[in-house]
Amino acid sequence: MTSSFVVVPQWQGSGSSRAMRLVDGAESIRRQLPKAATHRVDAPLEAGDAEGTGILRYSSIRLVRERLQRQLSELDDTPIVIGGDCGVEYGAIEHAARSGRVVLLWADAHADLNTAESSPSRAFHGMVLRALIDDGIVDAADVLLLGVRDLDDAEAEFIDSRSMRRVSADEVGAAVAERAAAAREAGHGPVLYAHVDLDVLDPAVFTGVSFPAPFGLDLASLTQAVSDARAALALAGAGLTEYAPAIVSDDDSEIADDGDEPFDSGDDLSAILRIVAALSR
């Protein structure tokens, strides 16, 4: 099946002081995608409020989720959602779960398993996977954590308490096949969703992220893992998130003023396109 791209330049779920860079990142990726197959879901301009949830900017996050769900319901192709922050994945994975039990490849430096009570930042991009599990959309046993290495204590405790599986890149294909077989045995037709937060890559490989973490994956390992996962189980959807292009000054040093123009690294965009190809081919 062919793919459609849905660009969601949401920044409100991010805990970064430079979250607006995610809008620039999503738009930079959008310009590289085929126009006829690409759709855009607008994020509000305003930050939004918590609406009593304890989650920063929740009203805007909720609104984007509703808009994304409407857009996805109109597509016949396999959707590849381009963030924005990781919070966009809630609506995308909820949509995929309508096709069957989701086996979720979570390629991310961070587990995103906090709650509003445990989160140091109260930012939803650090809670989205926990919300999916707590809301019954995904079973913790069906989540494969790839490249996760930067955990808060509460997240580490949750992973241990639920015996969540952490996999290396070369284990992904077999692990997806194993989870798919277990789902079929239980009478549930499984589907694959592949989540890629770009900080899963090592900072030496990819620079344009807000929360880099050392000892990440190289690009070839990531794309091969995605390909292996797709070979093991039909893809119902995928997400690529958290591209925050650097801001540079005239002397090529990075600066913090988000009012300046973003600088798209050619190497970063090349890496993104290789990942997009692995997700959509």
Question: How would you sum up this structure, described in words?
Answer:
This protein is globular. It has helices spanning 21-30, 58-73, 89-96, 128-134, 153-161, 172-185, 219-232, 266-280; strands at residues 3-8, 38-40, 78-83, 101-107, 143-146, 165-167, 190-197, 235-241, 246-247, 262-263. It contains eight helices and ten strands. It has one domain (3-280): Ureohydrolase domain (Arginase, Chain A, 3-Layer(aba) Sandwich). The model is unreliable at 249-259 (pLDDT under 50). The strands form two sheets. It has an eight-stranded parallel beta sheet with strand order 2-1-3-8-7-4-5-6, sandwiched between helices. Strands 9-10 form a two-stranded antiparallel ribbon. Helix 2 runs parallel beside helix 3 and helix 7 runs parallel beside helix 8. The chain is α/β, with parallel strands linked by helices.
